[in-house]
């Protein structure tokens, strides 16, 4: 049973990778460099302002993956930045 919980947790983390980057672009649109990393750090510092304060700890796992997604999208963000 312990192995099943561990596998389930690892799958949940792998499916949530880069979520902050995708969510930030859906909410604010493109043009904000490293929006996912910035949002994840903001909500880690201010968990009471998050939509789901109980899930803020997931930002710790998501931040490296959001950094990769944000880096890949950086040229596009810079080209449409205001």
Notes on the structure:
The chain is an all-alpha fold. It has one domain (2-80). It has helices at 2-15, 19-28, 35-45, 58-72, 74-80.
Tally of strands:
0
Domain module tally = 1
Question: Averaged pLDDT, please?
Answer: 85
Report the major sheet.
none
Roughly what fraction of the amino acids lie in strands?
Answer: under 5%
Helix and strand sequence: HHHHH
Figure out the total of helices: 5
The proportion of residues forming helix, as a percent range, comes to 55-70%
Brief sketch in words of this structure:
The chain has 82 residues and is mainly alpha-helical.
What are the main properties of this structure?
0% strand, 5 helices, 82 residues, 70% helix
Break the fold down into its secondary structure elements and pairings.
Layout: H1 2-15, H2 19-28, H3 35-45, H4 58-72, H5 74-80
């Amino acid at each position: 049973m312990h192995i099943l919980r561990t596998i389930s947790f690892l799958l949940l983390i792998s499916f949530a990778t880069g979520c902050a980057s995708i969510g930030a672009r859906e909410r604010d649109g493109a043009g904000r460099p490293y929006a996912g990393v910035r949002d994840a750090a903001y909500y880690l510092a201010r968990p009471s302002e998050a939509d789901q304060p109980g899930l803020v700890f997931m930002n710790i796992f998501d931040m490296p993956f959001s950094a990769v997604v944000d880096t890949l999208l950086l040229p596009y963000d810079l080209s449409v930045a205001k």
